[in-house]
Amino acid sequence: MRFAARYIVFAVASTVVNFAVQEAVVQTAPTQSLALSILAGTVAGFAVKYVLDKKWIFFDDYTSHGSEIRKIALYGMFSVLTTAVFWCFEVTFWVLWRTELAKYSGGALGLAIGYISKYALDRRFVFRSERT
């Protein structure tokens, strides 16, 4: 249970960072806010999620330069895939209801689906134990 709680807390933390950055962009560049806010929030959320996953979910140690490059590349590739899910939900909710609540609700749903998928992909392909 401790693992699940930690994973949920980290997913929520990266989601909060994502949305906080999105809101900061909306407040500073309101005329071009949707795409720019989603992109900036996604980058910030990605950085937070990678560090937390690597260190506290998968307890992944540095093994070699080549191994780290492979992990980052795979993590990034799977992030793009799951980010597409997130963006589709967020943009779809925005287009359907045109409210900030709808946009963030769609984003939260998309992120939840993405995080569950991402965990499975990362466990299987990115942070698998190379010592076994």
Cα distance spanning the termini: 25 Å
Which shape, going by the Cα principal axes?
Answer: elongated
What Rg do the Cα atoms give? 16 Å
- Would you list the SSEs in sequence order as H and E? HHHH
Estimate what percentage of residues fall within beta strands.
under 5%
**Structure classification:** mainly alpha
Instruction: Point out poorly predicted stretches.
Output: none
Mean pLDDT: 89
Number of domains: 1
By DSSP, the count of extended strands is 0
Instruction: Indicate the percent of residues in helices.
Output: over 70%
Total number of helices:
4
Largest sheet: none
Summarize the structure in words:
This protein is mostly helical. The chain has one domain. It is 85% helix and 0% strand. α2 crosses α3 and α3 runs antiparallel to α4. The mean pLDDT is 89.
Descriptive tags:
132 residues, mainly alpha, 4 helices
Quick overview of this protein structure:
With 132 residues, the chain is an all-alpha fold.
Architecture blueprint of SSEs:
Blueprint: H1 2-28, H2 33-57, H3 65-97, H4 100-126
